[in-house]
Every structure is written in structure tokens, then in C-alpha cells.
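Teaching assistant here, posting this on the class forum so everyone can see the example we discussed in section. The complex has two components, and the goal was to see what a joint structure prediction looks like when all of them are supplied at once.
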Amino acid sequence: MSEVKSIAEIEEEIVDDFSLFDTWDEKYEYIIDMGKKLKPLEDEHKKDENKIKGCQSTVWMVSEFKDGKVVYRAESDAVIVKGLVSLLIRVLSGHAPKEIIDAKLDFIDKIGMKQHLAQTRSNGLLSMVKQMKLDATVYLAQQASKN
Amino acid sequence: MSTTALHIAFDVDQVRRHFPILKREVKGKPLVYFDNAATTQKPVEVIDALTSYYQYFNANIHRGIHSLAEEATAAYEATRDTVQQFINARQREEIIFTRGVTESINLVAYTWARTNLKAGDEIMISGMEHHSNIVPWQLIAEMTGATLKVIPVDDNGELMMDEFHKLLSEKVKLVSVVHASNSLGTINPVKEIIDAAHKVGAIVMLDGAQSTVHLDIDVQELDCDFFAISSHKVYGPTGIGVLYGKRALLEAMPPFMGGGEMIKDVTFEKTTWNELPYKFEAGTPNIADTVALKAAIDFVQRIGKKQIRLHEEELLRYATEELQSIDGIRLIGQAKQKVSVASFVVEGVHPQDLGILLDNQGVAVRTGHHCTQPLMNRFGIPGTTRASFAMYNTKDEIDVMIAGLHKAIKLLR
């Protein structure tokens, strides 16, 4: 058995973390803290082709395919978005493309983020998820063509 | 009525009672609505006008012979008279109903400008225009071969009038500028622009989206050729606006859209156009919202623009003072003449983060580029946080925002 947690298990962990908070102030404090801790992306990656469309703020994201797993790295100029990106990375990064593509990502709903974020911002979040899944799809296709 | 009497009559608590939405809570906190430059809230008089139209006299206008059609037509046309008086237009025929400022500008672009401009002509706009007063002219410039000239903006957010006079020549056929900036609050010296433009034979269009609700508008005194109004920024419904145009210009312009109402006679060989203002009002118009616009203007006039202005000036003065006490804040737009808009950036803090955390405390502000990207580029910023005030806002609400900002900045830095 592998020690690596499944996407669903990590999602559950995050939902548990958020259940400890009584107020939205606390949730935001946590998200901001996550954002501040996210490892910055090197300037060379902060170019137009790595920008995610649909965000009011700017998000840059890159991914690589290593040992059958997709590794994501990202940054944003807005810290709350950075916190949300960091949550997405925690959930999806380091998993096989197929698992990423199939991930339901219910945690976004369960921690109340989807309802809480206004439509435009939520679209930004969804664009990020879409891009992450798209990357995974590309890697899966590459893998298939090699086999 | 004396000024003193007017002043006493303004009671913000009384005013707030007219706006049902102000009773609601957001995120468990009383709503503080500071996004008035985007759209204003509606008084119960406007909401009642809308529902009573649908409840009692919903009918298509102008052509019906029955009583309902007559009542609806009368109410629709009464709004035209009210708007005419509101902006002091010479004739009711100079008041064209459109969907809003964007459509009003496009109407002038696609009728007057498209048919009157040619290669070598110039269209002048300013560096603080909303995208709706940039893009239509770019499209027309592309179609006609005309070029675009831009009046630059200085560090305070004022138009550089020396540059304007330098740029102005007989090549300029049309100047289209914003009366008051939505991003900065700046009130532009439009009278000076209009007079100078007329001297070189250019016509002038004013984007009145932000000015109409705050300033007294007298199109005859201004002598502007076109003036665009948005109803929903004047406490009226969305989806309705006005284009004022001088009659001679409107008469000479081709129609904007073809359809019903805008024609006199249609044969397959030739169609003749209806008279003003109907030439520009093709199809069934937005009757209900037009009817309710009258209620909005009546409401504003009953409260009194002068009193509203005094109240808002006090709010802006107070907010500016309080904002300046925040460490690392930079006000964007410090013109001498401003409408009640406070736009700012906070060092090391993204406007979106501030917007989210203020919303979390029930405070609605706008963040981003406010559809004036070239202006944001001018100041070297991606956007601002903008608090814009209306007649129903209070100093207590500004205190809530300031406390919210302190809390947010502490978390974000």
C-alpha cells in the first residue's frame, strides 16, 4: 500500500480543517495564511502564456509531469486567491493524471467557498480547476501515446 | 424656499427609509453600499412605478387605440417631458430613449460619426474615458480612416488642458469626453472643452453617466451637441438611458436601427423615416423602465440635487480625511472638483483582497480597473478599490468601512 493519500482523502482533511472555524473571519485568516506560505513562482514563469484567464487578479500556473504524477506550481498577485490556489495544489498536485481528471473537488462546496465567493471570482477559481485538469489531460494523452 | 429650509429638510434617516434594500444584511452585517458609481439603489417610488405599470396599464405604446395603450403612451411620453426639463433641453424631440450610455454613444458613433468622418479627420477623447467611450470611436476610426487623439491626464487625475488646446485643430471633428470620471471622480472642465471645440468646428458629446446624478445639467447652457444619461445611476431602473442631441444634428443623421416605430412609410422600393424622436426608437421600447425613470427623476428633484450634493460632498470630505489616516494608502484622483468617488490603492495589498474582506464585513465597494484600463495604465496600477457615495450613505457607514479596512490590511500584510 502506498503512503500517498488520495485526492478524496486530502479533500476530507481540508473539510475537517475548515469545520474548526466558527466564522468567516477565521476561514479567511486561514486562507490568507496559506497564501502567504505558498512558495513563490520564479519570475521566468510569470509570463502571459502561464496566466489563467477569468480571474480579476492575475494567476500564473505551471505544471510538470514527473514519474507518472502531475506537479503544479502557481502564484497570484492577490493573497486570498493565492490561498485558494494553494488549497487546489495541496489537493491535486502529486497525483496521476487520471485521478486529477476524475476528481470531483467537492471540498470547494463543502468549505462554503463556492457560495461565498461572488460569481466572477468563483469563475476564476473554476478556471484554475479547468486549467489543472486540462494539463492532466494533456499528460495522460502523452503517456498513452508513449505506451 | 430658502436655502436654510432646504438644508433642514434633508434628513439622511428619512431618505434611507425610501430605499428598502438598505434594511438587508450581508454576511450577517448591515449592508453598507458604496458601489453607487456602478449602480444606485432604487427608492420605493421607482419600484412602485415599475410594478404599477405591469399591474394596471401594461400595453404597447403609440399605435394602440384602446385605453390601456393610451395610458401607457401617456406615461412613456411623460418621462420624455420630465427628462427634457431635468436637463433643460430646448425640445422634447431632442430626447431619445436608449438602453443606456453605451448605446447612446454607439448611436452617435454609427450615425453621425460613420457618415460624417473621413480619412484625415480626428476624433478626440480623454485619457480617463470608460471603455464605452473608447471602443466605439476606435471602431468608427477603423471604418472611416479617422484617427483618435487622447487628452492626457495629470498626476492629480485632471485633464491636461494645455495639451487639449495644443491637440485641438480643425482636423478634429468630434470631441467625446466624460463629464465626471467613474474611476477618479474628477469633474472635467467641459464648458471650456465645448467652447474651444466649437471654435474649430467640432461637435462635442458628453458622457454623463456619473455627472447626471450629482450635478445640475443644463444642456443649453453647456451647449454640448450630445449628452448621454444612464437611468440606473440616477436611482432609476437598468436597461434605459437617454441620448440628448441638438435637433438639427439629429434631423440630419440617418437612423440607427431599422424596424417598427422608426418609419413613416415602408414600401419595398423606399422607406421614409418617422419624425424625431421616433426615428431613433425602433421597435417596442423598454416601456416599464422608461415609465419608472420618471419616478426616479421626480424623487431626485423632490429631495433636491443641491442638498444631495452638499451631503455627498461632506461624505467625500470625511472619507478622504479618514482614508488618508491609513498607513500606506494612496488616493488615486485628487482633482479639485470631484463627484463623490474615493478611489485608492494600499501599498502591498491587492484591491481584490480588500474587496473580498470588506464584503465579508458587509461593505460593498468596487475593485478592479473600473472599465478604464488605459487610465489604470497611466497610473501604473492594475486597479483600485473604489468607494462611491450616494444620498443615502452616512458617516457612520464610512466609519464601518475604515474599521473594515484596518482589519483587512492587518490580515493581508
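For the discussion questions: Chain A touches chain B through 16 residues (CB under 8 Å). DSSP finds seven helices and two strands in chain A. Think about how each of these relates to the inputs above.
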